[in-house]
């Protein structure tokens, strides 16, 4: 089995696509006005309009309701990312911080309130652990 994508439902596809394209440097593929994809070597982030939710079932998803999932983005330099995001991100949850498990992390919220973790492994153990995970 393969995880094909992580999808965020939003009331404002354009705003979320612009945010993710600006904050990651990844060009979005607009498949439809109600849907976009941002592809990375390790996975795809999909952004869909809440107008598509009724096609899936009654009340199966709500925009701006996530408080249990974070999107993790591996970056080369968390501090440089922090500086680059100053004009893109409105809500910084935690400035670059060294975490006990060996990553340096920056936590922000996207325009819908979803939590994003931009991180860089800073210890050899963390670099080795991440390298092993991406090879599976």
Automatic annotation (TrEMBL):
<dbReference type="Pfam" id="PF00903">
    <property type="entry name" value="Glyoxalase"/>
</dbReference>
<protein>
    <submittedName>
        <fullName>VOC family protein</fullName>
    </submittedName>
</protein>
<dbReference type="InterPro" id="IPR037523">
    <property type="entry name" value="VOC_core"/>
</dbReference>
<feature type="domain" description="VOC">
    <location>
        <begin position="2"/>
        <end position="121"/>
    </location>
</feature>
<dbReference type="InterPro" id="IPR029068">
    <property type="entry name" value="Glyas_Bleomycin-R_OHBP_Dase"/>
</dbReference>
<dbReference type="InterPro" id="IPR004360">
    <property type="entry name" value="Glyas_Fos-R_dOase_dom"/>
</dbReference>
């Amino acid at each position: 089995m393969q995880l094909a994508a992580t999808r965020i439902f939003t009331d404002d596809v354009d705003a979320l696509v612009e945010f993710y394209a600006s904050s990651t440097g990844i060009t979005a593929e607009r498949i439809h006005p109600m849907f976009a994809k941002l592809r990375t070597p390790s996975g795809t982030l999909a952004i869909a309009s809440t107008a598509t939710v009724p096609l899936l079932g009654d009340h199966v998803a709500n925009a701006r309701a996530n408080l249990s999932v974070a999107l993790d983005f591996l970056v080369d330099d968390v501090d440089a990312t922090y500086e680059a995001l100053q004009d893109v991100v409105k809500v910084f949850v935690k400035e670059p911080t060294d975490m006990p498990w060996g990553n340096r992390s920056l936590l922000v919220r996207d325009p819908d309130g979803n939590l994003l973790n931009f991180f860089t492994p800073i210890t050899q153990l963390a670099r080795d652990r991440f390298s092993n995970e991406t090879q599976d």
